[in-house]
Amino acid sequence: MAAEKHGPLEQFSVKPLLKIELGGLDLSFTNSALAMVITVVAISVFLVFGMRSGRLVPGRWQSMAEGSYEFVGNLLRETIGAEGRKYFPYIFTLFMFILFGNLLGMVPSHFTFTSHIIVTFAMALVVFIFVTILGFAKHGIRFFSFFVPPGAPLAMWPLLIPIEIISYLSRPISLSVRLFANMLAGHTLLKVFAGFVVALGAAGVVPLVFIVALTGLEILIAFLQAYVFAILTCLYINDALHLH
Q: Maximum distance among all alpha carbons in the chain?
């Protein structure tokens, strides 16, 4: 993403850390890839060390690890039902990857990969393809009945079916843009207010207060966006399994 040096958008620039070219393709290891690796390592450390003790009365770390399992488990039960149990590993991985990616993006100088549309769209596209394959695998050609609103008169089908198809095809776009836009806007705003604090010096108390408030809000949004992405994925899976 083009950005003026040291401007509020400079933090989103993808920079190669290790140049790799193969067959004319640029496969360089970038700061975005490094941020994803750090995120995976952080999740692994959190879960492995959190559950290692296995105490009957859990400590704080174990409680947080168990709470994350329980949170996603409840999400699946409430949206899909008993059938959702088999999709727990996928939803849990998706939720934790987005959550930790968002939260680690709050650390100064850490790259926020969820602020890039190509990353969020890739995740949303995988969800879309998975849900579509699941729907056809379970229902076969009857899956097309999903695009016919129940109870709609036959005369309305030529109007309603294209609308339903467009709505279905727009899922990966809406799912990816929601996460990308929220993270991009929040981090840009934080960078702008941080610039005011530096420029105003001792008089920058008001922008500093805004930064503290925005940081708290961004942490909440980091969790909320991971939750929204996960619950919408659960709802899409429920649609594929049960149609209307």
A: 70
